[in-house]
Design brief:
heterodimer, A: about 100 residues, mainly alpha, 3 helices, about 0% strand, elongated, B: about 280 residues, two-stranded antiparallel sheet, about 55% helix
């Protein structure tokens, strides 16, 4: 089986994730969709690593995972603090800078 | 033989790689639909907790793909970091914020959903065209890369993917690795600062709480439990007072209403005193 199929799967997952970011308005769901996009990119990196016979792609995926973990921690803390002040996790309600 | 990392890695290396085998094809065609369906389920499920579980499914099937693609280290890290830590954190925040925060279905921007769908489809077609155009003739495979060579260029037996990644990580990428630790510490500190809440009013002491309780003027002590002196201790059976009357305080108002509605209002005489069994005295 050609590894290209993994790339197609990665593209599909990335698109679904970006659709979720565009469609959903719950901040946590938006965040989960961003995680899905990161995971799809990781799958592409691992597949490229295999196609080229080079472990650098896997190292890159590893660093993406580390940065994603840090990003989740800070992002969820921001969501919690926004929820505390606005009593809502909807991204539409966080518009204090607008007016 | 002690079961250490080296033997584990050797066992992993001995199990021949799935590269291009029918087994890999089968694994792919089983888990790829699961993965895509779960991703769709995450985007379209109303319940946020269901969405989080769908995301967990996607991450687990990605771990399977990593394992099938000669990346066992990443497969384990995927399960531990993503499915373990990140999903845990997501569910934790979900419970903190309230699972039942409903999302309004009203479109704030008119035609946004349609536009998003069209843009997503276009993006997908673009990616597919790019992948089709890319001249991926054959894949080299990681059989050679997943080995560690000594200075003479001989393959060190029993050192597979984990050792090869460690060798790269602690030589060429050592600076990035160190910077990563700084990033993690910064993230932990940032989360603590963001989630911290200052106390604006002094903490209420037990004395304050007691004063407030008596100031209201309602029943200051706990209410009597149901059926304490009656023959049943069911919730809808009122407690008997020492003088034989029932205590209305002992039955929650909602249950009281239900009881009267169903016509089961036991009379004090019916409840009576506990029957004295023969021979018990």
């Amino acid at each position: 089986m050609s590894p290209t199929y993994y790339l197609y799967l990665s593209a599909i997952l990335f698109t679904i994730g970006s659709l979720g970011v565009l469609l959903r308005r719950n901040a946590i769901v938006v965040f989960m969709c961003v995680e899905l996009m990161l995971n799809a990119a990781n799958l592409a990196l691992v597949t490229f690593s295999r196609i080229n016979g080079d472990l650098n792609g896997q190292i890159m995926a590893f660093f993406v995972m580390v940065v994603a973990a840090a990003e989740v921690v800070v992002g969820l803390a921001i969501i919690v603090s926004v929820y505390r002040t606005r009593r809502s996790a909807s991204v539409d309600d966080a518009s204090l800078l607008k007016y | 033989m002690p079961l250490d990392v080296a033997t584990f890695a050797a066992a992993g290396a001995a199990a021949s790689s799935l590269h291009g085998s029918p087994a890999e094809t089968a694994i792919f065609w089983i888990f790829a639909p699961v993965c895509v369906l779960a991703a769709l389920g995450m985007v379209f499920s109303r319940n946020t907790v269901h969405g989080a579980l769908f995301l967990g499914t996607v991450m687990l099937s990605l771990a399977v793909f990593y394992a099938a693609q000669d990346a066992p280290f990443l497969a384990f890290v995927q399960v531990i970091v993503y499915t373990g830590a990140v999903m845990m954190l997501f569910l934790f925040v979900l419970m903190l914020i309230g699972v039942d925060t409903r999302e309004s279905l009203v479109e704030t921007l008119r035609g946004q959903r349609l536009a998003a769908g069209v843009a997503g489809l276009g993006f997908l077609l673009l990616l597919f065209a790019g992948i089709r155009q890319a001249s991926i003739k054959s894949s080299v495979g990681l059989a050679d890369a997943n080995t560690v060579k000594d200075t003479q260029g001989n393959v060190v037996p029993g050192q597979g993917n984990v050792f090869a990644i460690a060798k790269l990580l602690f030589t060429r990428y050592i600076f990035a690795f160190e910077v990563t630790s700084a990033l993690l510490i910064t993230a932990a500190l940032g989360a603590m600062v963001l989630a911290h809440r200052e106390r604006h009013e002094p903490q209420r002491s037990q004395q304050d709480q007691m004063r407030d309780r008596f100031k209201i003027g309602t029943h200051p002590t706990p209410l009597p439990g149901p059926g304490v002196y009656a023959r049943h201790n069911a919730v809808d059976t009122p407690a008997l007072l020492p003088d034989g009357t029932t205590s209305e305080l002992s039955v929650p108002p909602a249950i009281e209403a239900l009881r009267i509605e169903r016509g089961r209002d036991p009379q004090p005489a019916e409840l009576g005193r506990p029957t004295v069994r023969k021979g018990s005295e």
